[in-house]
Amino acid sequence: MMRVILALAVLILGSTGGEIAITYGMKATGEPARLRPRALLQFLGRALRNGWFWVGVPLMAVSFYALLVLLSWEPISLVIPASALSYVVGTLGAKYVLREQISAARWAGVLLVCAGVALVAAG
Amino acid sequence: MATERRLRIKTLVMVLAMVVCANAGDLLLKRGMTQNGAVQLTGAGVAHAFRLTVTNGTIWIGIFFLGGFMVSYMTVLSWADYSYVMPAGAFGYALLTLMAVLFLHESVSPRRWVGVVLICVGVLLVGQTKPRTTEVASEAMA
User: Do residue B118 and residue A110 have CB atoms under 8 angstroms apart?
Assistant: First the structure.
């Protein structure tokens, strides 16, 4: 039981931590000047030279590894619904790390999405 | 408020691109791996599966779509909130269920339909909020 909770924590914190690091890097990169192939390629080049992007990628890889380990212990109908908690953890990270303003409507939406994903994944 | 409207529209277009690319990529990978058959977990079996995988056109198209997902994800996060994009992306689960019913004629349990409805209402709620609540950094020169 303990090891399942631990692996779940690594899964959730790894994916949300990785996505937050990538968001941080993308905000530092700035918007592409225009959404044309050439400008997009230059934009991607700048993004890949940002250190935060390369903090995010290994975190997401660790999270994926935790997912594989969890799936070898527990049924998928438990693992995926439990990982829907990452919507709540990610929103907390957005609020306290990225300093985004989470309005009541956004919180309500996130909680509904979290419950909905858990139900869909449970089958 | 023309810029506000423009921001909302381009965010929605990008989120839609993300969802479509992720779903198409996953479905194509699934189809390609099924064409290849189950992987035997021996040295020779894995090597054989690897050869089949890198020569399978369906899998390459799937990888192309997953690359498209990554690019649209990174692009939208360069201007929109993470807490906006992340729940909005869950619309993909609802879309996948609808496609499974329409195209694969799968039967879906009532519990799963309730989940689909909750996701749709949740995404609509998040969609109403401002896509960007942090300060706009000066646009980097291309």
Answer: no
Q: For residue range B9-64, what is the model confidence (pLDDT) as tens digits? A: 999 999 999 999 999 998 888 888 888 888 888 888 888 888 988 899 999 999 99
Report pTM: 0.87
* Cα distance between residue A79 and residue A71, in whole Å: 7
Give the nearest chain B residue to A44 (CA atoms).
Answer: B71
Chain B residues within 8 A of A46 when measuring between CB atoms: 140
Q: How far from the centroid of its chain's Cα atoms is residue A74's Cα?
A: 22
Domain locations in chain B as residue ranges: 2-128
Residue of A22, A101, A108 lying closest to B74 (CB–CB): A22
Task: Tell me the domain boundaries of chain A.
Answer: 2-122
Burial bucket for residue B105 (CB in 10 Å: 0-12, 13-18, 19+): exposed
